[in-house]
Structure formats: C-alpha cells, structure tokens
Amino acid sequence: LFSLSLLPLFLAACILNSFLLLLFWQPEVEGYDQAVMVYFGSAVVELAVEPLWITAQLFLYIRLKVVAEGLALGCRSIGTIVFLLLFPNSGVYAFCAAQIGYTIVILAAYYAYFLMRMRTDLTFPLKTRRSVFPAATSDNRLWITCVPAKTFSLAAEFLQQSVLKQLLTEGERFVMTVFGVLTFAEQGVYDIVNNLASMVPRFIFQVTSKGMFVIDW
What we know:
There is one protein chain. Helix 1 (7-24) packs antiparallel against helix 2, helix 2 (32-58) runs parallel beside helix 4 (92-120) and helix 3 (62-86) packs antiparallel against helix 4 (92-120). By secondary structure, the chain is mainly alpha-helical. 72% of the residues lie in helices and 0% in strands. The radius of gyration is 20 Å and the shape is globular. The chain is built from 6 helices and no strands.
C-alpha cells in the first residue's frame, strides 16, 4: 500500500493544477469563482479517498465501488434536479450543492466500510484509522524517502499516460477555452451533441473497460 505515501503528492498536484486552470477560466458568470472553489475543495476531499479506492481495487471490493459510486451519483443527480426545480435561477450554485453532496456520500461510504472492516476483520492490512494517511517512520525519516524508486517510476508513467489521455479526450475543450474559439454557451451545446453521440459506444464498452482494472495480468 505504498500509494498512501504518495497522497501528499496527489494533493499538491491537485492544488497547483486548480490554481493554474483558474487563471484561464474566468467567464463572466455569476458565482463562477465560488463554484471553482467548491469543486476544488471537492477534488481535495476525494483525493483523501483515493488510497481507500486503490485498496478496494486491490482486494477486488467491486460491490463497494458500485454501491458507493452509485449512491454518490444518485445523490448528485437528484440534488441537481431538486435545486433546479426549487430554485430555477440558482445557476451554478445548484451544481455546487449537488457536488458537495456527492463528495460527502463518497467519503462517508468508503471510510465507513473500511472502519467497519478494521474492527471486524483481523486479517485486514489496515489496522487503525491513521493507517490510511502517510505517517512518519520509526526512525523519523522523511516520508518521501521511504517510497521505493519503483513506485515513483510507476507513478511517473501513469502521470504521463494520464496527461496524454487528457489531451486526447479533452484537448479540444482546452483549445476552445484558452484561445476563446467558442463561448461557454456554445461549448455547452457542443458538449450536449458530443455526449449524446458517444453515449451508445460508452454503454457498450463500459463493462469491458471496467473489467480491465480487475484482471490479474
């Protein structure tokens, strides 16, 4: 579970990336700055769940992932609809409130499950609540010096692949936003058309895509 030692790097990368992107995306939309900070906070909190998510993948806790993410997505969808129906002029605030609900549910689901396993399963590798966070070694060495070089190499490789995947799948949005090719309203229309067109292939290949994460190669 060396991924726990890399958690501070995940948080640092998230904070740096959020502030850099905030410099580019500054539309004249009411509440946009507050929405960015809400999503930024949600991303940081969800990164705290990342070690548990990796552990669940490692031990093939597929049901946990399905239930947790299903409840969280349901909460976000229902929350968005309810806020838009009750407060039609709320704009981005409705999506912010729904995102907060998603973050709370996903956080509570994973930590509640793992805390229960710690108390009931003596063979579980995580023994205490502090086990899910980076900790100092017995000889008080800096945590980052305890991470194996192989783990850093693997993390760097995944980072490169993630950046490439982001550019290939979301690159046109960066171009449209940074260079002002389309307004945010026009980008909304583009997203609707693009998502509707790709919905059928996503449903068809979703099972195969998810299955690749649990196959022992």
